[in-house]
Write a structure and sequence with these properties.
By secondary structure, this protein is an alpha/beta fold. The protein is 35% helix and 26% strand. It contains seven helices and nine strands, in the order αβαααβαααβββββββ. The strands form three sheets. The chain has a four-stranded antiparallel beta sheet with strand order 5-4-7-8, with no helix packed on it. The protein is elongated, with a radius of gyration of 21 Å. It comes from Cyclophora tenuis.
Amino acid sequence: PHLMEVIREHKIHVQAYNVMHGVFSRVHQTPRAHSSLLSVAKSLKKDTEYSPAQVVLKWLSQHDLSSIPRMGSEHHLLENAAVTIAAMPPLSNRQDERVHHAIASMMRGEDLEPPRAEFVNNHSDRTIHLFWSSEDGKELPVHEDLGPGENFNTLTYPGHVFVAYDHDKSSRKEFKVQADYGEHQQFHVEL
């Protein structure tokens, strides 16, 4: 991080050659980081499919880092062409941050942690019961009797749905995990 600050401060131009090898050579060790890149690629534009490699090149260009991707095929030539990358929509701040974490993780060969969800019982006088809701609608208990003011942490996955009930199951509320790999999301439960 310090090196990048010095480079920007002194307006030193950086150019990277064969950057894809450095990022994607450890993809089997970092499936969650790779999944995060895929998620960003899918979120960019609905009528165009982008690859994780294109997302990395877009991120580099948005940070004024030149890259010379090696071309192994005509497909790679078209996929990684400067005109293709320039035509991509800009990464939002959130997408930029997700790509940054994924690239760093993949280059280190250390995968991102699953998202951490924290549930806080905001009631001063009621216990809540927390369940994980599977895609088929089954609800499995993850923490029963979460007392007033108490919190509960669990590792989960993006898109998972949790359900909170009050003590007699008369009130129900769903919570969908929006956090990505390596992130934390807090839910304040009030029924």
